[in-house]
Amino acid sequence: MAAANKGIQETFYISHGSPTLSIDDSLPARHFLKSFRQKCLSEKPKAIVTISGHWETSEPAVNAVSGPSGTIHDFYGFPAEMYRLKYPAPGSSELANRVKQLLLKSGFGTVHVDKKRGLDHGAWVPLMLMYPEADIPVCQLSVQTNKDAAHHYRLGEALRPLKDDGVLIVGSGAATHNLRIIDRNSGNKVAKWAYDFDNWIKEALAEGRYEDVNRYEEKAPNAKMAHPDPDHFYPLHVAMGAAGDNTAGELIHHSWSYGTLSYSSYRFAGKAN
Q1: In 58-77, which positions are buried (b, 16+ CB within 10 angstroms) versus exposed (e)?
Q2: For 31-76, what is each residue's pLDDT tens digit?
Q3: Is the pTM of this model over 0.85?
Q4: From edge to edge, which strands make up the β-sheet containing 167-173?
Q5: Could you tell me which residues come within 8 angstroms of residue 9 by beta carbon, excluding any fewer than 6 positions away?
Q6: pLDDT tens digits for 162-214?
Q7: Beta-carbon contacts of residue 111 (< 8 Å; ≥ 6 apart)
């Protein structure tokens, strides 16, 4: 008798950091993402739902593109070659509708479907490195910065059934994200406030203390310094919520840029016995 299909039970949070991740071979996170299939998830997903900090809406929204997804170059003042990069992964109206129905069933009163929006750089930059063939259907889900972390955890909870269908759920943001005080001359020195916040998150996730992470603003050190705005952190809560009960977050990559920008990335999976 054939074994039951377990789908893809792991979910992931990727820190995509700077848009230069798309071209800069000096960034360790770039090499980590290029080795993702070998080191983190060998099974090819049937589809991907990605949650990026670069799509903010007041209510949940999912894109449903017919044909290849457009590549949104939503960054300014970078090298010209970055604006020529394309990631034409196919969209999926079927998956988008499934996401919408799961969210409605879970009590989210309104879910919008955007049939024109492509993939922003929080989605396509990491996916371009993880799955360069661009042959896996991708839907993007928005974040709601007018809501709290627990709201995004519930978004993730609603998406859990997708995993059984072989859908990979990836949150994309930055473990610390205060662009106002990055230090381009920091060398290898990491600011203490950034280190302390990043380390607190690592320990809380490793112990499966998801409720504490949902309340990070009051629980974590230097939370407002690490995330003056929550847009790049909420994708973590979606990935965490989608992971399910009795899971924990495993640190799968750790590096820094500019002394304050953490590239910490996590895999959420069942706790080791």
Answers
A1: eebbbbbbeeebbbbbebee
A2: 999 999 999 999 999 999 999 999 999 999 999 999 999 999 999 9
A3: yes
A4: 112-114, 61-63, 138-143, 47-56, 167-173, 11-15, 265-270, 247-253
A5: 163, 244, 269, 270
A6: 999 999 999 999 999 987 676 676 667 899 999 999 999 999 999 999 999 99
A7: 59, 60, 61, 62, 99, 100, 103, 104
